[in-house]
Amino acid sequence: MTALRASVLLLGAAARSLAQAPPPPSPTLYLQPTDAKVQYFGRVDHSVPSEPRFAWVMTGVGASFQAPMPGATLYGNFTAPKDGARLRVMVNGKLSSIIKLGKKSGMTQYTLARNLAVGSHTVEVLKVTEDNTNNNRRRLEGSGGNKKEKGTMSFGGFALTGFAAFAPPPPPLARKLEFIGDSDTAGWCADGSAQTGDSPDKYQDAYQTWAQQIARNVSAATTVEAVSGYGVMSRTPAIQPVMDYTLGFDTATSWDYHSWVPDAVVILIGPNDEVVLDSDTASAKFIQAYLQMLDQISTNCKRYSS
Length: 306
What we know:
There is one protein chain. By secondary structure, the protein is α+β, with helices and mostly antiparallel strands. The protein has one domain (24-305): Jelly Rolls (Sandwich). It is 22% helix and 31% strand. The protein contains six helices and 16 strands. Strands 2, 4, 6, 7, 9 and 11 form a six-stranded antiparallel beta sheet that branches. Strand 6 and strand 7 form a beta hairpin. The protein is elongated and about 75 Å long.
């Protein structure tokens, strides 16, 4: 065998070896909750920056990234409230999956989007169930509730594989709407039917409500203060004592009305009070309570501009 032929054979063997070698492992990139590339939706408590918390429906987080090759996968880390939660995962504006968080689970990593194509991607993770831990108790934690039984969940950051890279979030929507309501606005049993029952961890979905359909039709960001079964009267019980807090029933943090200024406040609440309107006196108290709620909202609106 000539030296030239031997060299050719060796080069051919080396090329085959390289072709058969597995690709190098994809590095994992992490995006911490404090990073400006994380997008937040609704009322979020950042008092612990490394684990921001949320409780109201339609609160959540989002991430954008560039995938230079097929196979990008995004993970998210979350804790669950005592009653569990449903998360609606939207990939590039379309439903990808609904993740059910186990009741009272610690920080756990969930797969949010898997094996995505080449290109730019956005992922939104929205909490579509309400704080049913404290709603079922029907009293404020500050008024005798069990402070250990928090109905809040928290976010611990994103992880990204597939040689993709995180990107800045899209510009915020120009319009902002604040919604105040009851189960119609919170999405109670929105994914269920008369035959399924109404377990919130199976069927509640605030994304499907009239409020969110309006918001999507006018391209508006939202905050939602809605509690199923609530009204404006204390016997119902009333929404007023919880709607000024970042986490609703957890009264530790008041909402900063300067941080998010809506263009309009949309209200649909009162039908649940009908069951206690058994006299003219009760009707008068309903009117008084409704006016008190409107005064409270008006005061908050004044804070927007102060």
